[in-house]
## 1
Amino acid sequence: MKLLKQYSLLLALLAVFIPAMSQAADIVVNAEARIFKPAIVYIKLGDTVKFNNMTSHNAVTYVAPEGSKGFGTKGELPGGSFSATPDKEGIYGYACEPHIGFGMVGVVVVGSVTQEMKDAAKKTAMETLEGPFKRIIGMINKIEVK
Ligand SMILES: [Cu+2]
């Protein structure tokens, strides 16, 4: 009887987690001349952001949630396309380094975002970003708190 109970519990857990895992989605961001389109994307933890047309662009996080390793590699162009799967919920502000002078920045929001999270990301950005990378702050300002 006890074994049957454990078995049912296992089945119930699988029923909950398998659909949740299969819902992980690919969200596409296209690098265009001097912009990312869309520049702000809202995803769930486990979703992947696929950056296309990256031959002359990169996407490197300059603001990331605490403990996250972010995505992209400073000073490197991934070429073609590259996929980023953020490892923590929160706000990721990133830049295309070759075109930062043109304000080519974007934001990935993972999970639900509160005003406090937005304020904290903005504070971090203001304290750590330099020169044209401060453009990321403007993009964080545009995040919709839902
Ligand atoms: Cu670029």
Note: The domain at 24-141 is CATH 2.60.40.420 (Immunoglobulin-like).
## 2
Amino acid sequence: MENILTTKQKISLIAIGVLLLLNVVAWQRVFILVESHYLKVDFLDVGQGDSIFIETPSLRHILIDGGPGNAVLGQLGKHLPLGQKSLDMIILTHPDSDHLNGLLQVIEKYKVDYIVWTGIVRGGSQYQLWLRLLEKARESGSKIIIAKLGSKIKNGQVAMDIINPLTSVYGQDFRPKNNDNDTGIVLHLTYGKNTFLFTADISSIIESKLLEIKANLASDVLKIAHHGSKYSSLKGFLQAVNPRLAVISVGAHNTYGHPTPIVLQRLQDLNITTLRTDQNGTVEILSDGQNLKVSKEKTQNN
Ligand SMILES: [Zn+2]
């Protein structure tokens, strides 16, 4: 009798254990579901250049630019689900080395469904390699999309409007000076009530034109154009965007003097909180469509 009771007790203990385990599994599932309501935007710390990683609430992955070298590969390893070797979309804003070079490595190592760029002509061996890799990607099933004003990239409730280039630049030749900054793809992202503006390296010339045509600029988060160059970030432009947070993607001790004191001062005068990838590391922003949660890898140490 004693033995039977003991066995029963054992069985009920095991049953409780199984229930507890099921509970944990259920919790994990609930947690994943809750987490997937977030849009995640990471301004990756890749040195002197731009690279922005976006995870939509339905777990689509978009990379805007790849920075100047292979740092982006380590960053993707950290930010993509374990073992994932594919991206839904990459966007090359313009083929300058600090935006392009990292993407060359990404396109070689990751399967990419959609590749968006402007199709301009530029000099340099990296640009030639980009063309070859594009062709290879196309042959293995990637779709190449030429960015056009007014086009929209949509996934569920996340939408990105292309608001620059303002005219078609496809096939336009920028050699020998390669001054293609103003052809950069500018994207205005909306998720619920939250908005982001990604400005590539556009100068004040394009900023003025965007103001002139009353483009939809107002955004919670602004990626400062051209790493904080003094030729961008007009006061009127910053006022029109009116961001709660500005992010400057920039490398420590870069030779360009980015970000420039004049732009930092303008941001300060307008009381715009500013984070920098050289001081804060990767800046991550989570949005539930209503609120933003900002986290940074490092606290400023100077
Ligand atoms: Zn740049």
Note: Residues 38-296 form a domain with the Metallo-beta-lactamase; Chain A fold (CATH 3.60.15.10).
